[in-house]
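Input record (Table S2, row 170):
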Amino acid sequence: MIYEIKTYGDSALRGENKNIEEVDDSIKEILDSMVETMRNINGVGLAAPQVGINLKMFVMEAEEGIIRKIINPEFIQYSEIQIDHEEGCLSVPGIYKKVKRPESLKVRYLNENGESIEEELGESWARVFQHESDHLEGILFVDKIAPVAKRLVSKKLLSMKKETLKKLGK
Ligand SMILES: [Zn+2]
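Output record (zinc ion complex):
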């Protein structure tokens, strides 16, 4: 199933996301549909709140053909080195700006089989993992861009928000 992506201004993106107690079939089904949705629009990551589901999980495909399904992510360690890299977001279409983030990390999460995984991530995987984890805290990448860049996109964000609210009938 292909989900509709919630866009900037939708309250689901700022909602509180719950930890998943049990990785059952319904969770697996949602994760599969999230992968389908992400691939359908050529995304590299998609978090549950972006499809209106306020649970702590996301999917990513930072390298073509390799999918990671992440449940209840935790950060164990960040690298001291931070790098600036351009990001975009399926929920904030048309805006691409640089965000500074740690270059690599050590993380822990549950996979789709409910197994606890600990691993080190670098490059695109580290970046996407952080971007998607932010979604689970109700944070969007445009919250983290430099003030000058933020001023440049503020009008665009405002009209996107109006468009979203109109679509929702608010
Ligand atoms: Zn995003």
